[in-house]
Specification:
Elements: H1 2-18, E1 21-27, H2 34-40, H3 45-51, E2 64-70, E3 83-88, H4 95-102, H5 106-111, E4 126-131, E5 165-169, H6 176-182, H7 187-193, E6 205-209, E7 225-229, H8 236-243, H9 247-253, E8 266-270, H10 286-290, E9 306-312, H11 325-333, H12 335-356, E10 361-367, H13 372-381, E11 389-391, H14 396-406, E12 413-415, E13 428-430, H15 435-449, E14 454-459, H16 464-473, E15 478-480, H17 489-495, E16 500-506, H18 510-523, E17 528-532, H19 547-552, E18 556-559, H20 570-580, H21 586-603, H22 608-614, E19 619-620, E20 625-626, E21 628-630, E22 636-638, E23 642-646, E24 652-654
Parallel strand pairs: 9-10, 9-11, 11-12, 12-13, 13-22, 14-15, 14-16, 16-17
Antiparallel strand pairs: 1-2, 3-4, 5-6, 7-8, 18-23, 19-20, 21-22, 23-24
Amino acid sequence: MKYLFVICFLFQVYSTSANAQAYKYHTVKKGETVFSISQTYNIDEEDIYKYNPDAKEGIGINEKLVIPVSTSKPESKTKAASQFVEHRVKRKETLYSLAREYKVSVDDIKRYNKQLYSKELQMGETIRIPVGGSNSTEDSGSLIADNTSKPSAPANPAKSQITSTREHIVLPKETKFGIARKYGMTLKELDALNPKVEVLQPGMMIRVGTDVLEDEPVIITDERFRFYEVQPKETLFSLTRRFGVSADSLKQLNPALKDGLKFGMVLKVPENPEGKGTEENDYFNMADAANMKIDLSSSVNNRSTKEIAVMLPFHLNKIDADSIETYRNSILNERVVRISLDFYSGVLMAVDNAKSMGISTNLKVYDTKRDPSQVANIINTNDFSNVNAVIGPFLKETTEAAASKLESRNVPVINPLSNRSMRGFENLFQSRPSDEILKNAMLDYISRNAQAKNVIIIADGQAFQIKSELTSMIPSARTVTPTNNYVSEETLKKMMSPGANWVILESENINVVSSATSALNRLARENDITLLTTNKNNAYESDIISNNHLGTLKFHYPSVDREYDIAASEDFINDYEERFGIQPNQYALRGYDLTMDVLLRLASAEDLYESFERYPGYTEYFESKFHYMPKSGGGFANDAIYILKLNKDLSITNANDF
């Protein structure tokens, strides 16, 4: 009986193809009847009842009916299908130069690479170039069943890049996602080949590509995996971060990635948006990768000259033609200009150091004048087509202006200093971790180390949110609310225990911080006390707050920068003093660290984006470390921070309590 069913099924498929019978779906509209629908399609009512038995009981609005459609129309003549050459775009190549090289028009290239209608050609991108004539097959409707068993060219080249097709019989529980993935197609390509197909039905015959993947197709998802459609401007790097899986694992799940990632591609991905892997699924543990330090100086293999644009607010417009005195005054009076010059001095030191490693750099410097319109004008009037990265601008508004203008060209824009929330441009990198990242890192540190500690939380009314997070994380913690911005020693003394006491202080009020640290310093004579905070704000920098008290309390806090090792950086400091006559400050060191990281990443990979995919760990230099993660709204943020500890001798070290 089983074999009889299979034979009957195959016979039915054969008959459908031989008789050129195809079907489409009709959505019932208000006022329509079976009779009016039959008149619309010039068929008998019985034909509708044959394929829709339930229709005899009546039809309802928005109900879908299977309608048999005759495809006995004469077939249009078709020119020979074009042949294609796959071309990997090289530096400085343009659509115009490729059109001349292959003797085709720019429109011909765009027609078979539809992403080029909305974005510019990208270096490293693989495109298909038609050679040997144009494919002008007329659209015969692409109905559910084709009337030929031979592979044919796509019905509409502008809608699909598939150049040869085959028939696919829809199996039970198959979805468009699964079929598209099986044949290495995008959903848009599948829909373009089958424009009349709205809902898949078992036994239906549809048109697909001929490139069948080697692995067994996944018909439906399970609790471990699901299908995902690649969105515009997503990269393999951003997908590995999104789904917490390595690039190699993603390629194993999706053999079609061997030809590169493309917009609209359907991928099989872990059902795991937070990246919490399991041994069963063999996920790549991204948290472990983030905690792994890498040294890119030993991985330099890309010796091409790095094109770097630096955008900083120098305010050169304030210099008089005959005198630099006014500019000297502006340096003294404007903090942003001073920071720009210090940062730029670090950039120059990094470029020179990279040169000694065999990395040559073509540095172009632009004055943004702290004006977004000036940034737009710079990009409009200069050639940024070969720029590997833009370092700067400093401020939020000018950075967003640069990222917006360069997003379509995929040129990375790295903001050096701002931790303000910025718009989600896909090419925007914020190198300074936000306050939220600092807070979350400190919370993670506390949760991992608070076991067997007597935890006391001091939080004023302004810190109610972090107080709530801490008490939820450590239910056994006891809390203290300051009275009139004051924390009494008596209150804290009652809460001390003979063992280790961890006091978490959350306040931006100088009086609260001062009274709390003074009281805890006195109690530390007889108690083991460690002071911690998730937010080392300006209150701790006040002269009222004693650093000696903080040192006694082994003060722990999150930080973007660490104290650099003078002995380890002696050569750098000497070279800097010889060149600029002063010792490097924090902004000069930041300029050096950031620029060196960018140059080493560019020298160890094809581009900045690939370097993050190839080297998932963090990099570290004199004061800063870098580990970029995709932001939910777009772009990337550095989440590499330090948990620092102030010691009794007022030296600062990395906390290593865990």
